[in-house]
Specification:
The complex is a heterodimer of chains A (89) and B (366).
Chain A lengths: L1 E5 L12 E3 L4 H11 L1 H7 L10 E5 L2 E2 L15 E6 L5
Parallel strand pairs in A: 1-5
Antiparallel strand pairs in A: 1-2, 3-4, 3-5
Chain B lengths: L3 E6 L2 E8 L2 E8 L5 E6 L6 E6 L5 E6 L4 E4 L27 E7 L8 E6 L3 E4 L7 E2 L1 H4 L16 E7 L7 E6 L2 E5 L7 E3 L21 E7 L2 E9 L2 E5 L7 E3 L7 E7 L7 E6 L14 E4 L7 E3 L17 E3 L6 E4 L5 E4 L7 E4 L5 E6 L1
Antiparallel strand pairs in B: 1-2, 1-28, 2-3, 4-5, 5-6, 6-7, 8-9, 9-10, 10-11, 12-13, 13-14, 14-15, 16-17, 17-18, 18-19, 20-21, 21-22, 22-23, 24-25, 25-26, 26-27
The chains are: A alpha+beta (89), B mainly beta (366).
Chain lengths: 89, 366
């Protein structure tokens, strides 16, 4: 199970506690997280289910490359951090 | 008569109320957040507030007995695989709500129906008080929709929605830029309206094309749909045939350029504007903030200044930031530099409620 952490800034709008979820890709993990927290989904993903323009996700310290399909692989013990960029504020 | 104003600003939603003859800020909701627009549904009194969280996207909230609750924001349908659609800058057009730019309650005979106009040009309809939304595909898939362009914003958007008070299936919308569109079957089919408007800022082949028109604001009186008013990028236009054709109004001092227009709820020939110098210089002329008013269908105008700053005022009033209440006597407007003014006598006299608000995006009587 991957561990997922959300930026503190998002907590002001929607509660996104640290959690664990299964999945082999960022998409699979996030789908599982948002299944239990549907309100949070639109804060991270846009209408086409791509990562919002000024959001970024790190998997084990590396920014993901596939912002549209979120296909970047996730390991069994990966740490995923959902951040907002400094741009777009 | 309404004693409450909802003022949407860059840093929160201000509830301004009239008590003992004086307007004052009663409370602030969403403090620190970008509130872009509100709607008060006259059928049930509920308030809707649109927020733009930047990083986290566009959200919609609805009032409850004790505060606010987040409800669904309009979501665009999946962009078909392989579809290439670019914006006017050549960038792939994101099928994603970039801004909620218009909110309108449906007719009295259809409780729960809310219309929502957005950037990049999608029109949405809810039948359950905003719990869920459906894009009006007939308009989104209209071939001419792809001719819409960004106006003040990068992306085209629907900013005005008018519903016929006598037949709620008849709806007019206005687009910046994309002109005026009309449906008489609740959105199943759309026709372009707005012959006679003129766009000087486009190639001559397009100057008179209704789809090229940058309508800043479209307004009508509740009394009749016959008379319509447009504050346009090129000036003021008036229609006497439900927006089929328009005539340009010229010679209004200090200017016919601006963003908002409001119309008296019972007198369709009475309208108010907040002029600026012109498109390439968007500030009040000579630093004097004024409102212009006509009571005779634009045959004549008066310039209203009493109570408004007449020196070094650089207030810009956005298209949703002027409002009139149900009596037609009380008006209010807010500015980009944080001013809020109210008139109790159709604009003859204005009182400044405050001049220290964040930039004001919308003013609505609740």
């Amino acid at each position: 199970m991957a561990k997922i952490f959300f930026t503190a800034n998002i907590q002001r709008h929607v509660v996104c506690p640290e959690t664990e979820a299964a999945g082999h890709s960022v998409r699979e993990v996030l789908d599982n997280v948002f299944a239990g927290n549907p309100l949070a989904r639109s804060y991270v993903l846009d209408d086409q289910a791509a990562l919002r323009r000024h959001m970024t996700i790190f998997v084990d310290g590396h920014a993901i490359r596939d912002r549209a399909r979120l296909s970047d692989p996730v390991g069994e013990s990966s740490t995923i951090r959902v951040f907002q960029a400094l741009s777009g504020g | 008569m309404s004693d409450t104003l909802l003022v949407s600003t860059r840093k929160g939603l201000f509830r301004v109320v009239r008590k003992n003859g004086k307007w004052d800020i009663e409370r602030v909701d969403f403090l620190g957040d970008n509130v872009t627009l509100t709607l008060t549904d006259p059928r049930d009194g509920r308030h809707y507030a649109a927020l733009d969280h930047g990083h986290f996207g566009v959200k919609l909230h609805r009032s409850t007995a004790v505060g606010w609750e987040e409800i669904a924001a309009p979501v665009y349908p999946p962009k078909p695989e392989g579809l290439e659609e670019n914006d006017m800058w050549g960038r792939p057009l994101a099928w994603s709500t970039a801004r909620i730019w218009a909110l309108a309650a449906g007719g009295a005979d259809e409780p729960g129906v809310i219309w929502c106009g957005t950037q990049p040009g999608g029109l949405f309809r809810s039948t359950d008080h905003g719990e869920s939304w459906e894009i009006i595909r007939s308009l989104w898939e209209h071939p001419k929709r792809k001719m819409w362009m960004g106006g003040g914003a990068d992306l085209p958007g629907i900013h005005s929605i008018l519903i016929d008070p006598r037949n709620s299936k008849r709806v007019w919308i206005a687009v910046s830029t994309g002109g005026i569109w009309f449906t008489e079957d609740a959105g199943a089919n759309w026709t372009q309206r707005g012959e006679g408007m003129r766009a000087d800022h486009v190639p001559p082949e397009l100057t008179n094309d209704p789809v090229a028109q940058d309508v800043h604001c479209l307004a009508q009186s509740a009394a009749t749909t016959r008379r319509m008013w447009v504050q346009h990028h090129n000036g003021i236009f008036i229609s006497s045939d439900e927006g089929r054709t328009f005539s340009e109004i010229t010679g209004v001092e200090p200017s016919t350029f601006g963003f908002p227009v409001v119309v008296h709820p019972r007198d369709p020939d009475m309208a108010w504007f907040v002029p600026e110098i012109k498109d390439e210089k968007r500030i009040p002329r000579d630093g004097r903030l004024v409102v212009t008013r006509t009571r005779d269908g634009a045959k004549s105008f008066v310039t209203l200044t009493e109570g408004l700053p007449q020196s070094h005022a650089y207030d810009v009033v956005y298209r949703h930031a002027q409002a009139i209440d149900g009596t037609g006597n009380r008006l209010a407007f807010g500015s980009t530099t944080g001013g809020l003014w109210v008139s109790e006598d159709q604009g003859d006299n204005w009182a400044c409620v405050t001049h220290t608000l964040p930039p004001v995006y919308a003013v609505r009587f609740a």
